[in-house]
Design goal:
The chain is built from nine helices and four strands, in the order H-H-H-H-H-E-H-H-E-H-E-E-H. The chain is an alpha+beta fold. The protein is globular.
Length: 219
């Protein structure tokens, strides 16, 4: 009985994705931007707060949707992947699988001087950081000001002299995820050993908090 119910659930999910695909193909094709908003996703039938990336893979496997995409010159699978959350699990596809506590440690790095450009991350640090630390502890998560700059040092100095930027300019905030502990703790110098590196441009503070609460073990 459980197997039949699971099979029926998968069939219903495939049917729902097909209906979404047909609705999308009836609208005017739009080239997706690198950074997409929640409204952008909702207009295309995707809920970015609950959409798991393994659901998007069903689109790539559907021959019917693939045919519709070719006829209308639109890539629904790619649009889906721009809206999905990799830390979410589809309970129909993976009823016994969970990402909870998958990683042992997460390190968030940001540049103090350029933080005003990333309002959501700034809000996370000011309003959510203490909550995450209270549940996970500093042995599982840290947020540190980066000492690195993504810009060429000579170019950075010229821009500072011209008054275009202050001394705190640099790269965007990012999150490094590690699947094991390290004596003395991980730092931004250990980036090559991170299992996942996520650039946080465009992330919502609530999504970042939800991901950390899901992927990290409790203190």
């Amino acid at each position: 009985l459980d197997k039949n119910l699971n099979k029926m659930s998968k069939m219903m999910l495939s049917l729902t994705l097909l209906m979404v695909a047909i609705a999308l193909l009836q609208s005017t094709p739009v080239v997706a931007a690198q950074k997409v908003s929640e409204n952008w996703c909702l207009e295309r039938g995707f809920d970015p707060t609950n959409l798991s990336c393994d659901t998007c893979r069903l689109i790539d496997e559907s021959t019917t949707i693939q045919k519709l995409q070719q006829e209308q010159n639109i890539n629904i699978g790619e649009e889906c992947r721009q809206c999905c959350q990799f830390h979410k699990v589809n309970p129909v596809l993976h009823p016994d699988y969970s990402l909870r506590g998958k990683y042992k440690f997460a390190l968030l790095t940001y540049n103090e001087g350029g933080l005003s450009q990333f309002g959501e991350i700034k809000d996370f640090l000011e309003r959510d950081l203490s909550d995450v630390l209270s549940f996970k502890g500093e042995s599982k998560f840290k947020a540190v000001s980066s000492t690195k700059s993504a810009m060429d040092p000579e170019m950075r100095m010229q821009m500072m002299m011209m008054g275009i930027m202050n001394g705190g300019g640099g790269g965007q905030p990012k999150l490094m995820l590690f699947d094991k502990h390290k004596k003395g703790g991980w730092s931004e110098e250990d980036e090559e050993e991170a299992v996942e590196i996520i650039k946080l441009r465009g992330w919502k503070r609530e999504d970042l908090k939800d991901m950390l609460m899901t992927l990290l073990p409790s203190a």
